[in-house]
Design goal:
The structure is a single chain. It contains 5 helices and 5 strands; from the N terminus they run E-H-E-E-H-H-E-H-E-H. With about 180 residues, the protein is α/β, with parallel strands linked by helices. About 30% of the residues are buried.
């Protein structure tokens, strides 16, 4: 048998989060960061685990085990390509999203970028939003500001809490309909 790693859809064991949610778990953030670690520093400064949000990192190197996420998540990615939209997404991000099961759990996307990229500013978010049919929720420049960190943390928390409340309401309505 071939000794190569299985494709995303063949894996049965989900990956463990890089940082686990504290308290009541409400959702997840998946992110990619290059060796510069700009996005990683932004993610860390947001304090997602304190909001009940698991944090997963897409592997930087191809030899690392592929990330397998099996819970609803918001994807946070930087934009690359120096203004060339065709190069806005790195292969690691494409590979992660090409896994059918990984892609089935995406609920939204946030992108960073450099305003020097002009019309390609945060283009990665536009591309992912259109291809995966999810909302482009927010964008920020480079490392972001403390206000960006607050808005992203609170926005993702509220997004998952609203989704949870909507699901609870739907479940309650379904139960009432079944009892009638």
């Amino acid at each position: 048998m071939d000794s190569t790693k299985p494709y995303d859809d063949e894996c049965v064991t989900p990956s463990e989060p890089e940082a686990k949610a504290k308290g009541e778990h409400i959702g997840a953030v998946v992110y990619f960061s290059s060796v510069s670690n700009n996005t990683a520093r932004f993610i860390e400064s947001c304090g997602f685990p304190d909001e009940g949000i698991n944090v997963y990192r897409i592997p930087l190197r191809p030899k690392e085990a592929p990330l397998q996420v099996r819970e609803p998540y918001v994807l946070i990615v930087p934009t690359y390509g120096g203004g060339n939209i065709a190069k806005a997404l790195l292969p690691q991000i494409r590979k992660f999203l090409n896994g059918h099961k990984n892609r089935s759990f995406i609920r939204g996307v946030i992108s960073s970028g450099n305003r020097n990229f002009a019309t390609a500013f945060c283009a990665a978010g536009d591309i992912i939003s259109k291809k995966c049919h999810v909302p482009f929720m927010y964008n920020f420049e480079l490392l972001g500001t403390p206000d960006d960190q607050r808005q992203v943390r609170e926005g993702i928390r509220d997004f998952f809490l609203n989704a949870k409340n909507t699901q609870a309401t739907q479940n309650e309505q379904n139960t009432q309909n079944q009892q009638q």
